[in-house]
Sequence to fold (447 residues):
Amino acid sequence: MLNKALLFGARVPRYTSYPTAPHFHAGIDEGVYRRWLDDLPSGQPLSLYVHIPFCDTLCWFCGCHTTVVNRYAPVAAYCGLLLDEMGLLAAASNRPQITHIHWGGGSPTMLTPGDIARLAHATASHFPIAPGAEFAVEIDPRGFTPQLADALAQAGLTRASIGVQDCDPAVQRAINRIQPMETTRAAVDLLRARGVKSLNIDLIYGLPYQTVAALRRTIEFALSLDPDRLAIFGYAHVPHFRKHQKLIPEEALPGVEERFAQAQAADAMLSSRGYVAIGIDHFARPSDALAIAQRQGRLRRNFQGYTADTAPALIGIGASSIGALPAGYVQNHADVPAYRAVLSAGRLPIARGIALSGEDRLRRHVIERLMCDLSVDLAAAASSFGRAADMFAPEISALSGLADAGIVRIEGTTITVPPQWRSLTRVICARFDAYLDPATARHALAV
Fold:
């Protein structure tokens, strides 16, 4: 009999790219990146991601590239570096048209109102922005002020992504993120009052001292904010990679069965309130762009998670940012001093990346469709990339155990993940990952 607990505890990538970031290498440098940028047609739709790697406190669960600062000078100086990189990118590209902008972190709301305006103005100066382009910003409600809300609204904010994680005081203390519900509600009210209608709420399950009952209370609060979308991520406890996570007591972390119960409870609760399950960990109102894209088979997945954005290229700006171009992936230097040094020399701050082979593109397509649609016809996929229709026969055979357990359905060459097992989709995707070595994988838990 298949041991489902072992599946829940498997270490597998989140598949926000394929190949995944651990396989990037230094052979992809600035020269390669400039050629890839030059290959982008003039006026092509483009997404822009801007990374702000600073916070004023460190959340112990965090897996992002970020630095805690207690004065603003480093943030202001960094904002200047972002403008320098934008200038270099604008000169190296063929005036692509920006259809989607995302500011992430860290905490983008560490920026002052003046620097928010400066960064938004520079973006519009360097790149043509398409009418109706989405502008999304990750917002930390703690310390969020009317002045910041004004600045973001004036910059054209269309979607706010509010970090909540969990509302239980014991959980908040264990992850070093004290955020009363009143603080979160006040931030939402500030944004709503300024006409920002689209709202995402980010939650996490699998946190220390978290229970199914407590998670339900957090979701109830999140629903009271009337969000268009919710993301409920599984906490990735990787203290070997993020040393500060050692501050979280491991004995307080829920086991894999409890994590699965939390994910299932969230799914049932949100589905009962009319939200559509999107991929493996997002939910959206039926009228939301994500839900529409899913129904139409246009849902995509990138480094920000699920998106309705169909631009064929994404440019990352800022330390550690990753770009995805038709030819492959590139990543900037993660260390701010190294990022600064390369920019100061007038060069694009590329540290590593990977070029895509034909097989990479095919496997990326299969994995993305599984992550987005929970289903893919392997023969049709292979044929559309000019490969033999039976290319994936070994993978289909390898999935037979999961099929016998009802975790995946195999009908000819089509594989489908039943909705009740969508939390295990990454385990199924891993069967198609030609780079993954299960013996050495140090990724997040599958559930």
